[in-house]
Amino acid sequence: MTSNPSTATRPRPAFRARASRLAAGLAALAVVAGGIVGTAAPASASVVWTGSVPAGTVLNPGDSVTSPNGQFRLILQGDGNLVEYGIGNAVLWASGTSNKPGATVKIGKDRSVDLVHNGKRVTRWALAGKKSSTSFVVRGDGTMALLAGTESVVNWKGYQDRVTRGNVILGGTTLRSDASGTRTLEMKTDGNLVQRISGKAVWQSRTGGNPGSWAAVQNDGNLVVYKPGKKAIWHTGTYRSGGGSLLVQVDGNVVLYGKKDTRIWSTKPVTGLLWPVLSTKISGRYGDDRGANHVPRYHQGTDAPVAVGTPVYASGTGTVTSAVANNASYGNYVVVTYGNVTVLTAHLSKIQVKKGQIISRGIELGKSGNTGQSTGPHVHVETRRGGTLVDPLSVLHFR
């Protein structure tokens, strides 16, 4: 889609996409919550290595290694945590050593990377072999590796599947739905935005021949490809939807979500998500007042009254993000993430999937049951869109 006079003035770059400014802004990285990064903000970068760092180098607090365009960056924080950040300061990987202030990292020639604190090795990443390691690299898809020539000695499979509003995707950056690298979205250095599945291009913006271009996930909800000079050469036309995020999904779709966390554009049609059991009977609805003695008082999901042992199926193609046994409230339960929607099925008698597993429609997640705080055999279903509870029957369709 090319710009025309009525739309050319609408797309606006979220900010100037220059790798040099990104590198210079390392010192201003925000503290990322969630426990794996720690409480200390990254120290001011004293040395920034671009693309790779030679074996034999010692990284001191504040030193960093970035991908060639600066969008992915590994920084040794002052608290001792070694953290890889992606676009929008998303945390892709961390060493979990935030209690080791002043630690250093040695990129060894002996096929190892060591994190050292007070003269003692705290963590080592290594692989035995005869060929000496030569460099450590941070690539444009978020992966990192210790190399011996061109051979990867040790690999770190960090990846980024989502870009939130107000951020850009620079040329040479690849987003991935998961660690496998099977489903990707690449902003090529020639200006083309390309989606691939198993290496085959399945969608593209057709904006090649414009080196130096970038893609912007704008605050107004538009996804725009700009070429140098801030000229829009392609956009989704969703500037009235408000900013959300762009997500590369495990179902093979790339979806743009608006401010209401609903789909406003995608590279292929969306077929919808299915109810987890082969039944249309409902015994308890979302929002039902269950009385003052219940916590929470108002029902957070919808209940399907089925016999113990009834198959519980995946609603579509997604990733298992939780598979928990013997929870006091939910009993045995599974949570699957489908793009921007999560579906929880609880009170199961049996769980048949594992956390991190990619599943597709028709796969059995488990069997229904009567575990946890349950008053009878049923499956409790909860759905969240963008982290917010919503009525499952507004999201899931009966099979």
Rounded radius of gyration (Å): 24 Å
Structural class: mainly beta
Helix content: under 10%
Largest sheet: 9 strands, antiparallel
Task: Kindly provide the name of the CATH class of the largest domain.
Answer: Mainly Beta
Amino- and carboxy-terminal Cα gap = 36 Å
Characterization of the model:
This protein starts with 18 loop residues before the first helix and ends with a strand. It folds into 3 domains: 31-156, Agglutinin, subunit A (Orthogonal Prism); 162-266, Bulb-type lectin domain (Agglutinin, subunit A), CATH 2.90.10; 273-397, Glucose Permease (Domain IIA), CATH 2.70.70. Strand 17 (183-187) and strand 18 form a beta hairpin. By secondary structure, it is mainly beta. It is globular. It is built from 1 helix and 36 strands. Strands 27, 28, 29, 30, 31, 32, 33, 34 and 35 form a 9-stranded antiparallel beta sheet that branches. Strands 1-4-5-6-7 form a 5-stranded mixed beta sheet, with no helix packed on it. Strands 2-11-12-13 form a 4-stranded antiparallel beta sheet, with no helix packed on it. Helix content is 2%, strand content 41%.
Task: List the keywords.
3 domains; 36 strands; Agglutinin, subunit A; Glucose Permease (Domain IIA); 9-stranded antiparallel β-sheet; 5-stranded mixed β-sheet; mainly beta; single chain; disordered N terminus; 399 residues
Please give the structural blueprint.
Elements: H1 19-24, E1 48-50, E2 52-54, E3 58-59, E4 64-66, E5 73-76, E6 82-85, E7 91-94, E8 104-107, E9 112-117, E10 120-126, E11 135-138, E12 144-148, E13 151-156, E14 162-164, E15 167-170, E16 173-176, E17 183-187, E18 193-197, E19 200-204, E20 214-217, E21 223-227, E22 231-235, E23 245-248, E24 254-257, E25 263-266, E26 273-274, E27 302-304, E28 311-313, E29 318-327, E30 331-338, E31 341-351, E32 358-359, E33 364-368, E34 379-385, E35 388-390, E36 396-397
Parallel strand pairs: 1-4, 26-36
Antiparallel strand pairs: 2-11, 3-8, 4-5, 5-6, 6-7, 8-9, 9-10, 11-12, 12-13, 14-23, 15-20, 16-17, 17-18, 18-19, 20-21, 21-22, 23-24, 24-25, 27-34, 28-33, 29-30, 29-32, 30-31, 31-33, 31-34, 34-35
